Amino acid sequence: MDPFDDDELRFLLRTWKAPGAPASLRAPVLPRRAAADRGGVRSTFARALRWLATGSIRIPVPIGVAALIVLALWAYDRTPPEPVTVPAAAPVTLDDFRPVARLEPRIVGEP
Amino acid sequence: MTEAEVQSAFDDHKDAVYRFAWRMSDPAAAEDIAQEVFLALLSRPERFDPARGTLRAFLLGITRNLALKRWRDAHRWEPLEEEGFVAPPDDLERRDTAEAVAACVRALPPLQREVVILAEYEELPLAEIASAVGADVGVVKSRLHRARQNLKRMLQPLRARAGAAFQATDGQ
């Protein structure tokens, strides 16, 4: 059998046909652009808001984990200690002060 | 990009993008991939640099990256390129020719599959293929050669079946 050359290979490959883009591809793509083009600055702002609400950012897992740990430590450090409640001392007055009626000195220490 | 330019880009390249996604990935994902490609163009049109290649090569490059991402998600532990990959002849008796060819192309490692699709089906020149896949022309040539050798090995049983039709076209 003759060697399998590139032309024969190409002939075989071309038997596998692929369809063209379906009509349904247009709608999700172009109307969004048509809406975005209207409004100038407002549309830019609207797109930014939409991205904030629905967009996504890819973060490597180690960075994400490290960020969570740092956040947790920061939140723990900021937690204020529980306040210690000290009951208010009763105000001191001399209203009930009475001088000693009779003084009786006594020497302590001797039997 | 103006709306007219976007419309023009979409109309000019949607079929090529969709066909490439359809062949690289599974047909069910092709429309999603094609949609993501054009939405990427709409959201960041400044990423296209005409000095680095054509718009078609740029769009096919995005398609390629999205298709490979899906493949990597589904084949987490397999390498994209297997330089030592040698395809065995396939059991093609029970398939029709187009189905057999599809199976053989999809059996190639992804980096060989993409260059074959861009060269044989989209008929891109080597420089544009290199731009789309982000590799040197020499690397693309090497992958294309290995891919063709593998396809010839896999499709050898089909030669007898297709031989008469090929002779009739005189290889055109």
What keyword list fits this structure?
heterodimer; A: 111 residues; mainly alpha; 4 helices; 47% helix; rod-shaped; B: 172 residues; 8 helices; 70% helix
Written overview of the protein:
The complex is a heterodimer of chains A (111) and B (172). Chain A has helices spanning 6-13, 26-37, 41-54, 61-78. With 111 residues, chain A is mostly helical. The termini of chain A are far apart. The mean pLDDT of chain A is 80. Helix content of chain B is 70%, strand content 0%. In chain B, helix 1 runs antiparallel to helix 2, helix 3 (55-74) crosses helix 6 and helix 5 packs across helix 7 (137-155). The longest helix of chain B is centred in the first third of the chain and has 22 residues, at 3-24. Chain B starts with a helix and ends with a helix. The mean pLDDT of chain B is 86. The chains are: A mainly alpha (111), B mainly alpha (172). Chains A and B meet through helix 1 and helix 2 of A and helix 1, helix 2, helix 4, helix 5 and helix 7 of B.
Short description:
The complex is a heterodimer of chains A (111) and B (172). By secondary structure, chain A is mainly alpha-helical.
What can be said about the biggest beta sheet of chain B? none
Structural class of chain A: mainly alpha
Oligomer: heterodimer
Helical segment tally of chain B? 8
Question: In sequence order, what are the helices and strands of chain A, one letter per element?
Answer: HHHH
What integer is the average pLDDT of chain A? Answer: 80
Q: H/E series of chain B, N to C?
A: HHHHHHHH
Spatial gap, N to C terminus of chain A: 137 Å
What's the count of strands of chain B? 0
- The percentage of residues in β strands of chain A lies in under 5%
Distance between the termini of chain B: 40 Å
